[in-house]
Amino acid sequence: MTAVKAPTWKWEWNLNTLVILLGFGGGLIAWGATWERVNANQGAHANALDRLDKRLTGVEATIRQLDNHELRISSVEKQAAEAATSMRAVETTLNSLAADMRVTREILQRIEASQRDGAQLRR
Fold it and tell me: Cα-Cα-Cα-Cα dihedral of 50, 51, 56, 61, to 10°?
């Protein structure tokens, strides 16, 4: 009986093995570079977000001021409309008083005229 020998291990570099190992190494390097870019840009993005937050806070304050001005302007417009209405009422009242004064003056003139005529008749 012949003894069968176990095959011996040979260390050989196959082209597929080299391509796969180089691809895996390149993938690790690319992943590391991407991770570095993401981490490096996080600080820049955080600063940009802080800047935008400050700008937004300023814009909100300006909007509150504009709302306040709008409220004040509408109040002034309402007061102006009420003043115009009041002035029309005063004009109407003055016109009525002027007409009443004319009538009163005419009545007084007639009374004075009748008294003068009565005084002349008594003499």
Answer: 100
Structure tokens at 100: 């009443």
Whether the model clears a pTM of 0.85, i.e. scores above it, the answer is no
Task: Give the separation between CA 18 and CA 9, rounded to whole angstroms.
Answer: 18
Phi, psi of 21 (to 5 degrees): -65, -40
Residue with tokens 């937050």: 53
Q: Which helix (H) or strand (E) covers residue 17, if one does? A: helix 15-122
pLDDT, one tens digit per residue, over 24-57 is 999 999 999 999 998 888 988 999 999 999 999 9
For residue 2, the SS3 value is coil
